[in-house]
Amino acid sequence: MVGGALPAALAANWLATAWDQNAGMAVLSPVSAALETITQTWLLDLLALPAEAGVGFVTGATMANLSALAAARHAVLERVGWDVESQGLFGAPPITVVVGDEVHVSVLKALSLLGLGRERLVRVSVDSQGRMRPEALPTLTGPTIICTQVGNISSGACDPVDEICASAHDAGAWVHVDGALGLWLAAAPAQAHLVRGLASADSWATDAHKWLNVPYDSGLVICRRPEHLRAAMSVSAAYLEQQDVRGEPYHYTPEMSRRARGVEIWAALRSLGRTGLADLIERNCGYATHFAAKLRGAGYQVLNEVVSNQVLVSFGDADTTRQVIAAIQAEGTCWCGGTVWHGQAAMRISVSSWATTEEDVERSLAAMLRNAAKFQSGRQ
Hints:
Elements: H1 7-19, H2 30-46, E1 54-58, H3 61-78, H4 84-87, E2 96-100, H5 105-113, E3 122-124, E4 144-149, H6 161-170, E5 174-178, E6 203-207, E7 219-223, H7 226-233, H8 262-297, E8 301-302, E9 310-314, H9 318-331, E10 337-341, E11 344-350, H10 358-376
Parallel strand pairs: 2-3, 2-4, 4-5, 5-6
Antiparallel strand pairs: 1-7, 6-7, 8-9, 9-11, 10-11
Helix pairs in contact: 1-8, 2-8, 3-5, 3-7, 8-10, 9-10
């Protein structure tokens, strides 16, 4: 899923590059710190997340997941009397990490970087759309982190975060939401029901360079209790003299020095407004529904329940599907990638740009059907 670049966000990107300010400290870039403070307030309101939450501006969802899971690691070990930032993981009480069977690879990468491993996870079965089954959660005891997902990379489906949080919090577990794609559904009234209970979680990660359509690279880590994120991310000794404004920016991200990427998010939200952002998301979801209906009507198999902006389509057997994908890519009207969904080869359509129009959708559909027909009839 690759977003576009809103004109205002692109202009802000150019300006921020020309200013070349280090946004790691408020004293080095007061304007960046001020805009990030404003943007944090807007984001939490738009996504209906706790107003007291802490926000870090990072490079993308991989670093957002890493930062949030570092905060989770700190919190669950602190509860049992272990200071992981000082003592590390050697001799630490074990942490149980629970994920769905369709956990995204960026979460696995983050877990491995944090020393929590990729193979010692407890995997929970999912339904036909890739949603974690709350009833399949294991008995939760001791330090535990549960990684949920909103916006499955293939189907667009969302885990039932509300049900998972109810079970997890009774047992003292931390619930993290990987929302690289789907967190933005909360900002669209027509889709917000898909992420019901989102605000009950403890941390969230998302990309701004996907559905918010800001230039690369841009991600967000959000933590219900800012002190957990700060404990995991801050330096251990005083560094220069600074004031803790919203929280000195570098205390909430892995980087100490970084570009002023918050300026672009501010510009995107300022230009779209609440209704503009909702329209962008709902329009993309509507286009995805249209793609699915037309392809299904032409006799091709749509493999997922199209609930957001993702469509999975099969053009027959695996070889045929891959040939159609290659032909569509070679023609160049649009670009769709290939994937394997529940053992079946599929083409994935991802609608995520602010600039996509009805005409773009119809031209893309015509290209898909035209190229698929060549292989259906045995002609190439």
